[in-house]
Amino acid sequence: MNGVAFGVWISLAIYFIGMIAIGVYAYYKQKNDVEGYMLGGRNLSPAVAALSAGASDMSGWLLLGLPGYMYASGIVSLWIAGGLTLGAFANYLLVAPRLRVYTEVANNAITLPDFFANRFDDRSHMLRIMSAVVVIVFFTVYTAASLVGGGKLFESSLNMSYDIGLWVTAGVVVAYTLFGGFLAVSLTDFVQGVIMLVAMLLVPIVAFSDVGGLSAGVAVASSVNPELFNIMSGVTVMGAISLAAWGLGYFGQPHIIVRFMAIRSVKDVPVACGIGMGWMILSLIGALMVGLSGVAYIKNHNMELADPETIFLVFSQLLFHPLISGFLLAAILAAIMSTISSQLLVVSSSLTRDVYKLFLDKEASEARQVLVGRISVVAVALVAIIMASDSNSSVLKMVSHAWAGFGAAFGPLVLFSLMWKRMNRHGALAGMIVGALTVIVWVYGGIEIGGQPANDAIYSILPGFAFSAIATVVVSLMTAPPSREITEKFEMMERGLKG
Questions:
Q1: How far is the first Cα of the chain from the last one, in angstroms, to the nearest whole number?
Q2: What is the pLDDT of residue 7?
Q3: Whole-number Å distance between alpha carbons of 332 and 313
Q4: Angle at CA 357, nearest 5°, toward 380 and 382?
Q5: Cα(408)–Cα(383) distance, rounded to whole angstroms?
C-alpha cells in the first residue's frame, strides 16, 4: 500500500470507528423500549434533529449529483436547489410543529403509518397496511440505491472490488443502527452533516484558489460554455417548474419528517428550522460552487472529465493531502450512510409496528418489539445488498420515481391530516392510492406529451400531488365527517401548538 492510499485509509478508519462508537454510546444511553429505539425517546435537541434531517435527506446527491448537474448544465440547476430549499422550509413551517404535537395526541404514534391509523381511527387497518406497504417497498429500493453508491465509491476511489465496498458500507451502517437505534442514527447523522458541510465549503474555496479566484473562475467557465449562466438554458417553463417541484416531495418523506416526531419539544422547532435551513443553504451553495469551479479547473489544466458527477472526487484526489482526501471521501460516505441508516430504521420500525405487532403478536412486549426491530434492520439490509449486487444496477431513476411516489402518496395526506379538521379516513385512503397510482401510470404507462415520455416533460410528482390532493378533498366531502372523538383530538393538537 503506497503512502497516498495509507493516508486515505487512516482517515476512513477513524471515521468508521467514530460511527460505531456513537452507536455503542447510544445503546447505553437510550431506554430499551419502542419509543426509545424508534424515536430516541422524543428527546432530540434542535441541532441534532435539524442536521440529522438534512443529512438523511441529501445523501450522495449533494456531493456528486448536484455538482455534476451544475458542471454539465449551469445555473439551470438553481431550479432544483431553489425548489428543495422552499420545500424544506415549508416542511418546517407547516408540518414540523403540528406533527410533533399530533403524534403524541394520536395515541403516541411511533411511525407514520401508526399516525395515519390513529389520526383517523382506522379500525379496518387499511390505511396502516397501505402506507406500510409503500414505506417497506420503496425504502428497500432506496436503501439498495444508496448501497450501490457506496460500492461504486470504494471501486472507483480505493481500487477495491464493488462487492467489498457494498459489504463494508452496509456493515458499518448496520452495526450502529442495530444497537443504537434512532438515537444512534440521529447522532451519527449530526456528525455526518457537519462533515458534509465542511467538505462542501472547503473544496470550492481551494478549487477557486487554484484557478485564480472566483472572478477568474467565472470568466473561464463562461468562455467554456456561454450558456452556463442562462437559467433557462435547455429547459422550458414547464421544465423549470418540474425541476422546482422536487420540493413538493418533502411533505411525504418518512425518513425526514420522523425527525419532527422525535424533536424534544414543539418550542424547539423554530430553532431547528434556523439551523436546518442554514445548513441546507450553505451546503447547496457549496455544491453548486464545486460544479462551477470544476468547469474552470478542467479547462485550465487541459483535462477531460468523462462523468461530471465525479468532479468532487477529482478535486479530492488532486488538490489535497491524502489525509484530507480521506476526509473528503468520508464526507461522501457520510452522505450515503446517513441516508441508509435512516431508511433502514424507518423500514424496520414499520415492519415491527405495522406488520409484526398488528398481525403476528398483538400483545408483544416493548422488549420483544425492540428485538424484532433489530432483526428487521439486518433483514432489510441483506435484501438491499442482494438488490444492489449488480454494479450496473439502474436504480437512480427508481430513486427519483420513489421520491415522487412518496411525495404524491403521503405529501397531501400529511398536509391535510395536520391542517384540515374535516378530512376523514376515506379521503385519506383515496388520496394515498390516487397519488401513488398517478406516479406509477405517469412513469410506466407509456403516456407521451409533445412526443416525449410524460415524465420527461412534466415530473410525475406534479400530477401525482395534484390528483392526490383533489381526491382527498372530494372524497372527504362526499362521505361522512369524522367522529367527534377524532375532531376533539384535532382540536387538542391546535391547543398544543398555542401552548
A1: 61
A2: 66
A3: 9
A4: 10
A5: 26
Q: pTM of this prediction?
A: 0.89
Angle between helices 162-210 and 269-300 (to 10 degrees): 80
- Buried b / exposed e over 221-258, threshold 16 CB at 10 Å, is beeebeebeeeeeebeeebbebbbbbbbbbbbbbbbbb
Q: Measure CA 450 to chain center.
A: 32
Domains annotated on the chain, with CATH:
3-392 (1.20.1730.10)
Contact yes or no for 23/180 (Cβ under 8 A): yes
* Residue recorded with cell 395515541: 107
Spatial distance between the Cα atoms of 296 and 304, rounded to a whole number of angstroms: 12
What torsion, rounded to 10 degrees, do the Cα atoms 412, 417, 422, 426 define? 70
Contacts of 421 (CB under 8 A, 6+ apart): 482, 487, 490, 491
- Nearest by Cα to 333 from 195, 202, 207: 195
**In 301-395, where does DSSP find H-type helix?**
311-318, 322-350, 366-387
Q: What's the chain's average pLDDT?
A: 87
CB 399 within 8 A of CB 253: no
The cell for 245 is: 417541484
Backbone angles phi, psi at 45, to 5 degrees: -70, 160
Output the CA torsion sign for 271, 275, 276, 281: positive
Do the Cβ atoms of 251 and 407 come closer than 8 Å? yes
Q: Residue 395 — pLDDT band, cuts 50, 70, 90? A: very low
**What confidence score (pLDDT) does residue 185 get?**
83
